[in-house]
Amino acid sequence: MQPSQGTLVVALAVPFLAAAVTPLLYRVLGERIAYFGAAIAAVAFALIGTQIGTHGTVTIPWIPALDVSLALYVDGLSLLLGLIVSGIGILIFTYSGGYMHDEPGKAKFYTTLLVFMGAMLGVAFAADLLALFVFWELTSVSSFVLIGHYQDQADSQYAARKAMFITVAGGLFMLVGFLLLYTISGDALGTATFRLAGSGGMIENAGAMQEALRSAGLFVPVVALIAIGAAAKSAQVPLHIWLPNAMEAPTPVSAFLHSATMVKAGVYLVGRFRPLLSTPEWELVFAALGLLTMTVAAILAVAADDIKELLAYSTASHLGLIIAGFGLQSVYGAETGAFHILNHALFKAALFLVAGIVAHEAGTRLLSELGGLWRDLPITAAVAAIAALGMAGLPPFNGFYSKELLFEATVYTAEHAGGLWWLLPAVAVFGSIFTFLYSIRFLSLFFGEKPDALEHVHSPPLTMLAPPVVLAALAGIVGLGGVSATFGVHLGPLEHFVDRVVEAVGATDPHFGYHLPTSVTPAAVMSAITIGVGAVAYPSYGRIASVIERLIAIDPLRPNFYYDGLVGWLDRTTIVSGTVQTGRLRTYAIWLLLAVASLALAGYASAGVVLPAVSSIVADPAMVIVLAVAIVAALAVTRAPSHIAGVLTLSILGFMVAIFYILASAPDLALTQLVIETLVLVLFLLVLDKLPEFYGEVDRTRALRDGAVSAVVGVTVFLTVLISTAGTPGQPIAQYFIERAGVPADHGSTLLDFGGGGNIVNVILVDFRAFDTMGEISVIAMAAISVITLISMRERGESQ
Amino acid sequence: MSSEPRPTDGDTTVIARTITRVVVPIIMLVAIALLLQGHNLPGGGFIAGVLTVTGFALIYVIYGLRYVEQELLHRTVVPRSLPISEGAAETDVDPPIIKEFGEIFTVGLALAAASGIVAMALGFPFLSQGVWFLAGVPLYGHMEVASALAFDLGVYLVVVGGLLTILAVVGAE
Fold first, then answer.
1. What is the Cα gyration radius of chain B?
2. Domain span at residue B125?
3. Which of A65, A345, A385, B44 shows the greatest Cβ crowding within 10 Å of its Cβ?
4. Which chain B residues have a beta carbon less than 8 Å from that of A682?
5. Chain B contact for A800, CB < 8 A?
């Protein structure tokens, strides 16, 4: 069934529209704005929910004249992500109503959260690579704002910047991959397209795309580029380092962005590209990346003392599991990824919300200071139990089934490929043991003796308690579905839904079902080993943690060592601050002008532009005189002894150009030039007496350098004028303007097809090309706003 | 312009002040004429806007910033509690006027956009323009009203508001 265009567009637009009015609504609603956000998420959730069962592309024409449209694609995978984003969004907004009670910057918080939700829905439903990229980066930007929510704290600033650097840099790699795909699609599909999914897209012609990529030798680079983008976003080793720092954000953000949704974008990307690029190379890259991350991050989580840090590493680890699943080519791999996206979102969001409750009510997040909380927080403890046991992969909780699937997929791959591939199941078990360990450690903060230092712990408000309860209940139902399926009663709709997801990531004719193991399979044995070894090792948790701590104290083993080293070096070194970022306007101007000039010249060179032959120059003597005066004035500017003389000489040049326009019968241009020239002159006079009266002595090397820069810029402009005016398009548009601008001989009382003005230039500005003018006046307004913010408000930001 | 112009005090010659007093109204009148005739003769919102600002700039240069803001505008403009004035309150120049300039270009931008949206509401593409020919207007008789004038007025207001903002802010420095 085709998805409904209107429903999807509304679901996508509603969060953005709501974000636009949130700052205003906040003044009216105050804190209750959280429930407004929850309502918006509920609307999106309901709208997306109506699309379950549909499949296909809808396009919304945007600029029909240029054939630009926004295409949305609906299939199991996009619905899964869309429902997770909006569904967990409802709970997160509700939870925030309680959590953000005493926190600053609520209007900003909710606005950004809504923008993020919209962007994430955009990622889920975008059918074009470009749209996908734009929404993708928008999630990075909103994540930056949310991580840096406590904007005065150095830790938040560090964390926000780090997340921004890594995810945006990864996104740029991904963009290069997208552009390569776009180029290749021209060979494979006939016409180059950004359309990824849906009819006429790359995935539909995966075979041809793969062949074209291979023959161009670009297959591995494209896989690698997309892997880097996905790894940066989904916190895969070694790019995982931003995620633990991102826990500086308020807990609802951690639960929403950094466990359930945004980090799933990378995973989603891998799942989305799986049908297009799934090959042995793909398997090697993603299975290795995923399993490595799963193990390393699980080990790091064991050493963590902060519960949010533990959960952050755990998130990276589970994302590794999903990526490994999508990496493996067998249908089990696809099922692993598809099912674990759901399971992980349910239990991890619940655990983060539990962590938020603990931090909020007990006042600390350190494992070593917490214990025995179940007496004070019984419901929270129950939620934590269901979610943490699911995370540990203990039957019959939900995480168990997807982990079984991973084991099954690794064994399947190993059996078929043999050799070193047997490492996969071994690593999977090894990593899972650590997962088991830290999950039980997390749970332990509710049991055992309560430390004396811990004061009485309050119960959380209902708004903070309900969301994790809902999530845990859902996780519990998924888990019980496996138990009942063992006895033949399947959770039909869920299994069917996962089927659609599995289909979307490239498996044909899937029959997804999950249940408790009923016979001794390799996967069941692996699960038994995991749980058995984990249970035996748990009593020596402290010793394991201290070994890991000693290990990660070795600098060269820490990715953070390299990151901090690089960033610190950039801060200290004078290479950048001495040459590019000097803080002087003239340096920036030089770099900017040179960059523009070299880009333009390189563009001409690569396009093989030929200079037009100048046949003959016929010039009016008046023009020659005017231009000669202009040239003399230009030369005189460089010799001017003082500012006053320089400005006045420069005006001569300007006024000569104005006269030139008059001679060339361009009165509008001449008028504009005249008034601008006058205004500039007056403005210069306004500021002149603030400047030093005379120029200082000019350094010879600097003069030469400046001369060279101006020569380059001048040559570039000259060439541009020559080349662009030499172009003779087949159908000049000028005739159309001439015919349409004026008032036709016979006309009615209204005139719509014609410009109806005697001044063609003005009619072009306000009618034919009004959109351009609109853009230009927006730029003027923006410049004015920038001036206000930079100059008038500069003390304001710091004093707050 | 022979004397050294000082933006913040009234230390300018009588000649300059007198000429400015005479010339500025003419500049404004020309600017408005350029705006209105722009559709059929040389002119238009941008040129008119820049010319208007030139007139203001002349007053700034000759009479000084404080004179313009306190003597000319303070009476008519009620200073509101502004976000801008909080930070800049220490400086002796009162910047509320920037807020009014800001409103000018906001209104201009809104007007330009609205003129486009009206076209959309009537079922034409964004920013389509039309012309109405009115007959029997008093004094004029026959008159041509272009919807583009609204857009041009928006351009004018944005240019005036934007440039005056820059002028006032930079001038206050």
1. 19
2. 14-172
3. B44
4. 54, 57-58, 61
5. no
What gap in Å lies between CA A447 and CA A381, rounded to an integer? 9
CA distance A391 to A403: 10
Closest CA to A435 of A318, A263, A545: A318
Instruction: Give pTM, 2 decimals.
Output: 0.78
**pLDDT at residue B90 in the model:** 41
Q: Is A763 at the interface with chain B, CB within 8 A?
A: yes
Candidates B6, B90, B132; nearest CB to A689: B6
Phi-psi domain of A190 (left: phi exceeds 0; alpha: psi -120 through 50; beta: other): left
Tell me the C-alpha distance between A466 and A489, whole Å.
29
Q: Do A795 and B88 lie within an 8 Å CB cutoff?
A: yes
Q: Which token pair is A401?
A: 């089934």
A750 in contact with B at a CB cutoff of 8 Å?
A: yes
pLDDT at residue number B71: 66
Q: Which residues of chain A have pLDDT under 70?
A: 66-67, 615-616, 689-698, 745-749, 751-753, 792-800
| B43 chain-A contacts, CB cut-off 8 A | 668, 671, 759, 762
The 10s digit of each residue's pLDDT in A92-106 is 999 998 888 878 888
Per-domain residue ranges of chain A: 160-553
Answer whether residue B7 is part of any domain: no
Instruction: Report the range of poorest mean pLDDT among A240-249, A762-771, B12-21, B64-73.
Output: B64-73
Q: Which chain B residues contact residue A672 at CB under 8 A?
A: 46-47, 50
Domains: count for chain B: 1
Contact A750 B133 (CB under 8 A): yes
Instruction: Note the pLDDT of residue A733.
Output: 76
